[in-house]
Fold this protein.
Amino acid sequence: MRLLFMMFVASMLYTCVVRAGEPIVVLTYGDSRETSSTLDEYGTHPMRTDPNAHQMHQVAEAETLSHIMAEYYGGSGLNMKFVELAILQFNREAFVRGNPHFLFAGKLLHLPSENQIKALVTGQKSKSQRSPSNRNQNEIFFFGG
């Protein structure tokens, strides 16, 4: 039994020594110049510089709401769950049964401004040019944790 235990320990030590001799892979992430140019690109987008800017977007085939939100709201600092719910609130007819994961291609989406999103979240009246498509529900509520 003792011999079996010593053989087990010897094999474990051999495995550790062999693995210690393997090369180490160090992952590096893009050049800092790439990051600053991306931030500059985000910083100049009208939806990020003007809190009252809103836009219209025609949904392309195979385009997802996540892609659209990244294009228009990426780098804005807004909570993307609130943005998703605000877009859904303003464009109920563009989604299958109100599900943000099922978007009709060809629909024209109203992408709300930062101030319109804040008004939905806080329950204030928005001074927007367009109000949500479902006038009975013009606030975003979260229940639970």
About this structure: Confidence is low (pLDDT under 50) at residues 32-38. The beta strands are 55-58, 108-111. The chain is about 45% helix and 5% strand. The first strand starts at residue 55 and ends at 58.
